[in-house]
Automatic annotation (TrEMBL), chain A:
Pfam families: DUF6894. It comes from Bradyrhizobium retamae. This is DUF6894 domain-containing protein. Residues 3-68 form the DUF6894 domain.
TrEMBL record, chain B:
CDD domains: CAP_ED. GO terms for molecular function: DNA binding. This is Crp/Fnr family transcriptional regulator. The keyword Cytoplasm does not apply. The keyword Transcription applies. GO terms for biological process: regulation of DNA-templated transcription. InterPro entries: cNMP-bd_dom, cNMP-bd_dom_sf, HTH_CRP, RmlC-like_jellyroll, WH-like_DNA-bd_sf, WH_DNA-bd_sf. It comes from Bradyrhizobium retamae. Residues 150-224 form the HTH crp-type domain. Keywords: DNA-binding, Transcription, Transcription regulation.
Length: 74, 243
């Protein structure tokens, strides 16, 4: 099972994932990325400390995709 | 580490949170205890097991966990020296969760038969152990509130502050620091956060000057502020026999 790393970048912190998570597929990794982003967004958005969070997903070689969650109040 | 050290840590903890008298302490001292060293991540007892002994944690840490659908693991408790994490096995024969070593630790196995005989013979010991399992339940209640409603930073701070408070009660902290060999993955499993989220929370706690967690050592930098961020009220630990 390939290992994916979920680096995060938001209005407060940029953090490199040094542990990673074994995911059976790229689809599973993308679901995990959304879960990570949503979980951090819950804290970040509700505390008013930020409005954007990006999760950059990489395997051991390179970045494979990124997911961004934006808070937009209109 | 010998048997005397094992009963000593158990009695030390019971003296903190219960009214245990001299005679009860002598009776507990007389219990046969088999010491065993276990390695980090070694399974102690697992779901479905029928243990014939209770396991007293003499030195190190233990965690209890359950695996939920999809294979994700939820850590449901961290245990410190003096705890008997599977005391319930005395009356509930089949274990419904897993008990695992967190870092290398020393255990003292107390067979059910002499423990049961002691409980029948000395009602005060029965009450003390009953109270102990009730406090265990109070801690679970707090953990439900923790993962249910607190923010990532607050719930992580809460778990660490709980460990700090309980270790301090048995004089296992040094200044405001203690060894805690948990990885960020394991800590995440206790608070329902991913490892990278725990990493982020740790950076925030550090940046705010509240605590530092590096290479298995936790250092509390600002106890009052950390307690505040953790939303921590020590009542649920019932550390004083009057509480």
């Amino acid at each position: 099972m390939p290992r994916y790393f979920f680096d995060i970048d938001d209005d407060q912190f940029s953090i490199s994932d040094t542990v990673g998570l074994d995911c059976p597929s790229l689809e599973a990794a993308s679901k995990e990325a959304v879960r990570v982003a949503a979980c951090i967004a819950k804290d970040l958005f509700s505390s008013g400390a930020g409005t954007r969070i990006t999760v950059r997903v990489r395997d051991i070689d390179q970045q494979v995709f990124e997911a961004t969650l934006l808070l937009k109040v209109t | 580490m010998d048997k005397a050290a094992a009963t000593s840590i158990l009695l030390k903890r019971l003296r903190v949170s219960t009214n245990i008298d001299e005679e009860d302490q002598r009776a507990i001292n007389a219990l046969p205890i088999a010491l065993k060293q276990v390695r980090d991540e070694e399974s102690i007892v697992s779901t479905g097991d029928r243990p014939s002994a209770c396991c007293l944690l003499v030195d190190g840490f233990i965690f209890r966990s359950k695996v939920v659908g999809g294979g994700k693991r939820q850590v449901i408790a961290f245990h410190q020296p003096g705890d008997i994490p599977d005391l319930q096995s005395l009356y509930i024969p089949v274990l419904d969760h897993d008990v695992t070593a967190l870092g290398d630790c020393v255990l003292g196995f107390i067979s059910h038969a002499p423990l049961r005989a002691l409980v029948r013979h000395r009602p005060n010991v029965a009450e003390i152990l009953w109270r102990d399992t009730l406090i265990d339940a109070a801690i679970f209640r707090e953990w439900i509130c923790n993962v249910g409603h607190r923010s990532g930073i607050s719930r992580t701070a809460h778990v660490i502050f709980e460990i700090y408070t309980r270790l301090k009660a048995v004089q296992r902290t040094k200044d405001k620091s203690f060894q805690f060999p948990a990885t960020q993955v394991l800590l995440g499993e206790a608070v329902g956060l991913s490892a990278v989220h725990v990493n982020r929370v740790m950076q925030e706690l550090r940046e705010k000057g509240l605590l530092r967690f590096e290479r298995g050592t936790v250092t509390i930098l600002d106890e009052a502020k950390l307690k505040d961020v953790a939303d921590f009220d020590p009542l649920y630990l019932h550390l004083d026999p009057a509480l």
